[in-house]
Amino acid sequence: MLSSEILLTIKLNEHLFADPRRIELLRQIQKIGSISQAAKLADVSYKTAWDNIDAMNKLSPKPLLERNVGGKQGGGTRLTAYAERLLQLYDLLKQIQERAFTILHQEEVSLDNLLVATACSSLKTSARNQFFGTVSAIQIDGIYATVSIQVKGLPHPINAQITLKSYERLALSLEKEVMVMIKAPWVNLEYSSHSENVFSGKITHLQKQDDEVEVLINVNDIEFCATTTKPVMANIGETISFSIDPEQIILATL
């Protein structure tokens, strides 16, 4: 397996603010409460350590260090709450970078779409049906919003009904990229003339186990997964239609 190391550097106002060496210095100060001792553990001179901390403080919107007064050790230095959060953020950004790098070899993952790349590298959900598309229409009705999402390859948009509060929280707008999630039991193999989100496709997989049936349906090379406890009146290779209740569709976005 390919071993990789990504070195994260943060600049503020075009000047170096944080890099692995400076972050390590802050970590040592966090542990022992002394710049001089932290410098030794970070394998740098005291002057180098102080110059780095001073440079960070000059760029930082808030102080990074504060003095401890008194105590058994006669005082010392500790990180401010802002510096503590900086360390947490740095660790988080490193994890995001490392996860993102893993999709380099996954050629099926688009790297020109931030939502797709983020979801594939970081987001895991239990929903069997996960699609990416763009908002093509929005209709507000009282406390609800019906959002139409056009998924490339599908013959028509998928309509999702969410609360107005959710719509506002997601900051949805036309052409915004969204992720559509539908649990397999919510793909309804029985529908009527009043059903919404009706699609047709060929059955590519049909598996029965106890009282459950799992069905995979190909719609223009897009796979839907449905599970049901009712008999499926079609076989592999045959065309079947299904519907999805707009209220049983989950949307996600960045």
TrEMBL record:
<dbReference type="InterPro" id="IPR004606">
    <property type="entry name" value="Mop_domain"/>
</dbReference>
<comment type="similarity">
    <text>Belongs to the ModE family.</text>
</comment>
<protein>
    <submittedName>
        <fullName>Molybdenum-dependent transcriptional regulator</fullName>
    </submittedName>
</protein>
<dbReference type="InterPro" id="IPR051815">
    <property type="entry name" value="Molybdate_resp_trans_reg"/>
</dbReference>
<dbReference type="InterPro" id="IPR036390">
    <property type="entry name" value="WH_DNA-bd_sf"/>
</dbReference>
<dbReference type="GO" id="GO:0006355">
    <property type="term" value="P:regulation of DNA-templated transcription"/>
</dbReference>
<dbReference type="InterPro" id="IPR016462">
    <property type="entry name" value="ModE"/>
</dbReference>
<keyword id="KW-0500">Molybdenum</keyword>
<keyword id="KW-0677">Repeat</keyword>
<keyword id="KW-0813">Transport</keyword>
<dbReference type="InterPro" id="IPR005116">
    <property type="entry name" value="Transp-assoc_OB_typ1"/>
</dbReference>
<dbReference type="Pfam" id="PF03459">
    <property type="entry name" value="TOBE"/>
</dbReference>
<dbReference type="GO" id="GO:0015689">
    <property type="term" value="P:molybdate ion transport"/>
</dbReference>
<dbReference type="InterPro" id="IPR036388">
    <property type="entry name" value="WH-like_DNA-bd_sf"/>
</dbReference>
<feature type="domain" description="Mop">
    <location>
        <begin position="124"/>
        <end position="191"/>
    </location>
</feature>
<feature type="region of interest" description="Required for dimer formation and molybdate binding">
    <location>
        <begin position="125"/>
        <end position="133"/>
    </location>
</feature>
<dbReference type="InterPro" id="IPR008995">
    <property type="entry name" value="Mo/tungstate-bd_C_term_dom"/>
</dbReference>
<dbReference type="InterPro" id="IPR003725">
    <property type="entry name" value="ModE-bd_N"/>
</dbReference>
<dbReference type="GO" id="GO:0030151">
    <property type="term" value="F:molybdenum ion binding"/>
</dbReference>
